[in-house]
Amino acid sequence: MKRTNLLSFLPFLVLLLLPHLGSKPILASEDVSSYVVYFGSHSHVGVITQDAMDRVRETHYDFLGSFTGSREIATDAIFYSYTKHINGFAAHLDHDLASAISKHPEVVSVFPNKALKLHTTRSWDFMGLEHNSYVPSSSIWRKARFGEDSIIANLDTGVWPESKSFSDEGLGPIPSRWKGICQNQKDATFHCNRKLIGARYFHKGYAAAVGPLNSSFDSPRDIDGHGSHTLSTAGGAFVPGANVFGQGNGTAKGGSPRARVAAYKVCWPPVKGNECYDADVLAAFDAAIHDGADVISVSLGGEPASFFNDSVAIGSFHAAEKGIVVVCSAGNSGPADSTVSNVAPWQITVGASTMDREFASSLILGNGKHYKGQSLAPSSLPHAKFYPIIAASEAKAKNVTASDAQLCKIGSLDPQKARGKILVCLRGINGRVEKGRAVALAGGVGMVLENTNATGNDLTADPHVLPATQISFKDSLALSRYISQTKKPIAHITPSRTVLGTKQAPVMAAFSSKGPSSVAPEILKPDITAPGVSVIAAYTGAVSPTNEKFDPRRLLFNAVSGTSMSCPHVSGIAGLLKTRYPSWSPAAIRSAIMTTATTMDDIPGPILNSTYMKATPFSFGAGHVRPNLAVNPGLVYDSGIKDYLNFLCSLGYNASQISVFSGKNFACSSRKASLYNLNYPSITVPNLSSSKVTVSRTVKNVGRPSTYTVRVNNPEGVYVAVKPTSLNFTKVGEQKTFKVTIAKRKGKVAKGYVFGDLVWSDKKHRVRSPIVVKL
């Protein structure tokens, strides 16, 4: 059935519903919150004019007015009207009204204006100077012209425009297709240029949740550091001499160093831990799509939710419709299973791993033992001078629990017991740098930060305010034994130093969120992993490198960790690929990135997790990104919007809902398609309940004519058969389909997930897909 146009439907709707509403407006309820009302896609034809957008806004007022009994009330209630590519509005509604609206046939979904989080660990628990295989070779950069034809948009805390990473030196005119603006009308100090070609801010959703905002919020300027860091990682210019307190010195550069960049500020100072809101994220997506972005980088997310109730999934879908690559962070809720967020198949989801560079700072004990730690503390102890070392719990202040003292919370330590000593603090709960602050306030001369069993060998170099180092869980146990068994334990902390070529690397970060997806376990997430630990990139001049109010230091560059940091690495690579292959779809770019990834470290051996156990695709997806190979993948697994809609049909989403969502005359097939047949670069069967499952995949040749043969690494207890076993391509763009049958082996097999892979190779290219099966 042809979709009814909302514009023509509304006058009838008003007459139909008003007699049933009575004279009391529904919004009179005291239980008013903010919601997003989502109608799916617009049906704009050609250039979207201001007049067309104004008409859409009027229909939104009319639509809500038909429920409230007053167009004036509706106008006051709506604080966002999405008028360009995303069709919907955000408004102050009560629960009953939101529920009533959700039942309307023109509505895809109504969901609360939920809080989202930035995916950075900073100094809390729960760009370019990379040394290993992340950095594209100079020849690859030249072939892709350093990404100069691509426009990368970043949804984050904005940007610090004065950073040299956003210098436009050597760049030509702004691309004529760019429609964005520099929203600096209320901040005369903020300027865009031919590099930073646009900046906007969105805070109405934030204000709806936290209350009225003052005029200082009316700027895209980054007063947090996160947005500048992520944007410069994706597309920052070449900046010689970048370093953090002299460490990691070198030339900083983004993945696409000559790309044009744009900042969309959607995250604000945390209130009860919440920084970003759905309503603002949707508004930013709608703007970025319309402005002309090629890549949208999103280093934030919320709890996994239904795709129609997830602002990042919705915004990403509309971006993908327009051929825009959307790259998202996987989240920092690891190492627990099923914690991954941003799991839509039209997104590229990125986990975080280490690189082969460390900021080493060793702990030397009085017994001569050395334990390697990491730190970016600019201060150091006198050379070779040893100090008494004690567990922080032994320096407990009066009326304080031993647990709080062990965590080195502010005010938990007794200066009489701590003065002149190195204190050993336990990682967790409060900020890592804050712990050092507590030690310094109590007169301690240094701090050793002990990892827990959960954080294992996961070490983060922080810019501590006193000499300090962080050590692994195993070494923490040895340290505890030394302190307890030694009459007068002493120790020394060595100054921080930069070490390149470290082994093992990469290792999965403990914080990196893991699969399987709780929303759609048939799609392997994350898709890929990239450097996300102690990443150096541009920072804001508004706050310290620790983001702590007590810290007066300011840096041009900072080292930060999180999947927020790994996400823009892949965004930068996507910018290179978009420049090199402008006709490639977002799915083709994702495929090139995934199928050329590696699952091996630099030993070489399999990539490990933070406890030095073998990691699985639920941690790293297809593996660690290798941009030099992604630029020449040989074959790609391509897919488009219709494929995604069929996938939603297979997931059981309402057919009429999907039709409205797509904005097209799309209908789910009467014959339900298999969930496993989305043409994805990985194969996941989350329940092999029958004896076997057969899935179909299609590959497209993007290289020279060649013949590929298949090799399968069978998951344990599973037999995988591929037909045909060879594919011959005679031209670019030619497509071939093959079938993969996955069967249980006879006999007793262990329950749970097992992993393997499927590789097509012509001896020059190696096109690898992970296989994930639950028995």
UniProtKB/TrEMBL annotation:
<keyword id="KW-0732">Signal</keyword>
<dbReference type="InterPro" id="IPR023828">
    <property type="entry name" value="Peptidase_S8_Ser-AS"/>
</dbReference>
<dbReference type="InterPro" id="IPR003137">
    <property type="entry name" value="PA_domain"/>
</dbReference>
<keyword id="KW-0325">Glycoprotein</keyword>
<dbReference type="GO" id="GO:0006508">
    <property type="term" value="P:proteolysis"/>
</dbReference>
<keyword id="KW-0645">Protease</keyword>
<dbReference type="InterPro" id="IPR036852">
    <property type="entry name" value="Peptidase_S8/S53_dom_sf"/>
</dbReference>
<feature type="signal peptide">
    <location>
        <begin position="1"/>
        <end position="28"/>
    </location>
</feature>
<dbReference type="Pfam" id="PF02225">
    <property type="entry name" value="PA"/>
</dbReference>
<dbReference type="Pfam" id="PF05922">
    <property type="entry name" value="Inhibitor_I9"/>
</dbReference>
<feature type="domain" description="Subtilisin-like protease fibronectin type-III">
    <location>
        <begin position="677"/>
        <end position="773"/>
    </location>
</feature>
<dbReference type="Pfam" id="PF00082">
    <property type="entry name" value="Peptidase_S8"/>
</dbReference>
<feature type="active site" description="Charge relay system">
    <location>
        <position position="564"/>
    </location>
</feature>
<dbReference type="Pfam" id="PF17766">
    <property type="entry name" value="fn3_6"/>
</dbReference>
<keyword id="KW-0720">Serine protease</keyword>
<protein>
    <submittedName>
        <fullName>BnaC03g44450D protein</fullName>
    </submittedName>
</protein>
<dbReference type="InterPro" id="IPR041469">
    <property type="entry name" value="Subtilisin-like_FN3"/>
</dbReference>
<feature type="domain" description="PA">
    <location>
        <begin position="404"/>
        <end position="479"/>
    </location>
</feature>
<dbReference type="GO" id="GO:0004252">
    <property type="term" value="F:serine-type endopeptidase activity"/>
</dbReference>
<feature type="domain" description="Inhibitor I9">
    <location>
        <begin position="34"/>
        <end position="119"/>
    </location>
</feature>
<feature type="active site" description="Charge relay system">
    <location>
        <position position="156"/>
    </location>
</feature>
<dbReference type="InterPro" id="IPR034197">
    <property type="entry name" value="Peptidases_S8_3"/>
</dbReference>
<dbReference type="InterPro" id="IPR015500">
    <property type="entry name" value="Peptidase_S8_subtilisin-rel"/>
</dbReference>
<comment type="similarity">
    <text>Belongs to the peptidase S8 family.</text>
</comment>
<dbReference type="InterPro" id="IPR045051">
    <property type="entry name" value="SBT"/>
</dbReference>
<dbReference type="InterPro" id="IPR037045">
    <property type="entry name" value="S8pro/Inhibitor_I9_sf"/>
</dbReference>
<dbReference type="GO" id="GO:0005576">
    <property type="term" value="C:extracellular region"/>
</dbReference>
<dbReference type="GO" id="GO:0010102">
    <property type="term" value="P:lateral root morphogenesis"/>
</dbReference>
<dbReference type="InterPro" id="IPR000209">
    <property type="entry name" value="Peptidase_S8/S53_dom"/>
</dbReference>
<keyword id="KW-0378">Hydrolase</keyword>
<dbReference type="InterPro" id="IPR010259">
    <property type="entry name" value="S8pro/Inhibitor_I9"/>
</dbReference>
<feature type="active site" description="Charge relay system">
    <location>
        <position position="226"/>
    </location>
</feature>
<feature type="domain" description="Peptidase S8/S53">
    <location>
        <begin position="148"/>
        <end position="609"/>
    </location>
</feature>
